[in-house]
Amino acid sequence: MRINSPGGDVVAAAQIYNMLIGYPGHVRVCNDGIAASAASVITMAGSTVAMSPVSMLMIHNPANHCQRTPADQIPTPRGKTVWPPSTVRSILANEKYKGDVLLQNSFTTDFLTKTMKVNEGEVPQYYVTGNNDPIINPATWDAVQAELARRSGKGASNARPFANTISCSDYGGSFGRKVWHSISKYRRYIWRCNNKYKKSHSCATPHVTEDQIKDAFIEALTERVTGNDVFDDTIRLLDETVYDPTCLNPSRPS
Fold first, then answer.
1. What is the DSSP letter of 176?
2. Count of CA atoms in the C-beta half-sphere (13 A) of 21
3. Which of 254, 242, 217 is nearest to 30 (CA)?
4. Mind listing the pLDDT tens digit for each residue in 83-100?
5. Torsion on CA atoms 12, 14, 15, 21, rounded to nearest 10
6. Which residue in 65, 107, 112, 114 is deepest, having the highest Cβ count within 10 Å?
7. Where are any strands of DSSP class E within the chain?
8. 213: closest CA among 181, 168, 179, 166?
9. Does the predicted model carry a pTM greater than 0.90?
10. Distance between CA 208 and CA 211 in Å, rounded?
11. What is the C-alpha to C-alpha distance for residues 6 and 148, in angstroms, rounded to an integer?
């Protein structure tokens, strides 16, 4: 299959992807120019993918938005007019939308006063699948949960790849990026423990410069991949498949 597309409808791309994945034969995808956005999804369905040195593959996080006008006046579940992020997040994480239900999220501590408490492990919980008709496809709901977990957990930032990845040897605090001399010609970035000047505990670990971190990362990565047979085999496989431009120059009958 030859592809040259800037992208389009991600739902249609997902259907094409599934059809190609379900094909029993070998699927060879050749990128003739660009496979961007939704087209990159289709590209990934190939058993092998070939790209020329001048072709492009563009992958990005999905973009979406929720839009309403003041005239709509759609209330929140509690009847409010303003939708805070926490309310939207609670809806996205509600398993009832995919047809399941988690029983005993809360329980009654006093039947006389009808006092309720959030269940934090005091009583058992029961997860029931297929409890009601789903509003959202279960696969879509699971993908949303994975994305929520990725955003809420510790991970590398696109702008600052070392964020939340450097731990301090003194009480295990995290290093954060700081700027020195922000309005002068001596402006530079350093990384230091976020507990450096806490009143309860002042960290004694010295700061490091961003260049020192980059040099240490390159040294560690070099040590990791040097003489690594698995890594070498992976690079060799990429050279033979992804970077193989053979199918981009098919022989023509004379």
1. E
2. 11
3. 242
4. 888 888 888 888 898 888
5. 150
6. 107
7. 2-5, 28-36, 48-51, 56-58, 101-103, 106-110, 115-118, 126-128, 175-180, 188-193, 208-209
8. 166
9. no
10. 8
11. 27
